[in-house]
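SAMPLE LOG
Freezer: B-3
Tube label: C17
Construct: single chain, 286 aa
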Amino acid sequence: MMSLLLWPLSLLALFPPVTAPPPPPPAPAEAPTTDALLTRLGTAISKLQTLRCNVKASERHPDGYQQARTLMKIATSPLRIYLRNQKGIEVLYVQGQNNGDAWVYPAKFPYVTISLDPNGSLMHRNQHHSVLDAGYGVIADLIRIPPQRSEAYRRSFRYQGDTTIQGRPCYLLRSDFPQFRYISYKTTGGETAAKIAERFGCGEYRIAQRNDIGYEDVLPEGKTLQVPNAYGRRTILCVDQKLMLPLAVAVWDDKGLFESFEFSQVVPNQPIPPAEFSKDYKDYKF
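STRUCTURE (predicted):
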């Protein structure tokens, strides 16, 4: 007779233990909505206290595309900006200092630092944007809703999936706005190209160029201008999924590619010593 002690082993041989079924694969993550991404992007930009980055820019001008590579350091409250491009030109702006002007080291003879209005024509030479828009000021303008127009341009953005920039996962946002065009606008008096651009969300460069006016010109009431009704006909934004800050942006208008920017070595919200926003800093040539 089989020993009772052997029954459990015999049963195990005949009936192997039942193992729990493997867990079901995790459900795919729900795709983010366009509105949620634009809101997160705007929030991330608005919460920047400091920013270090390198920017590769390409901007269309009447004589062709101008290329630039610029190192940027930016701090807010008060606004402080330091720029140095590949030619060695340096710019330092500190809110509340130098009578509102920026210090500029031209990196050429006579190698003397000068002071310039950051919104003036000299500072805008071969530049689409004011030094005060350094960093993500341009992108903030792209996604906000200007008071003069409807939100049609912002609503034209669509989340197009994911991509990779500089080895970093990014959200891809694209705007197609075929109704982009120049419209007639009558000034109300006391306006500048920048103030009008702020109302329409279109950037002041094309207003100044199209109407042959200076950036600092205060315009009389009733002057008719040709003004873009949006920032671009097509816009592409690649937003870092971790930082929620753009790594690349490109804008097309009625003439083709208008401008593109690529951001690298982006370090947000890490302390920058105050000395690095002083014209006497040891690494600067002011």
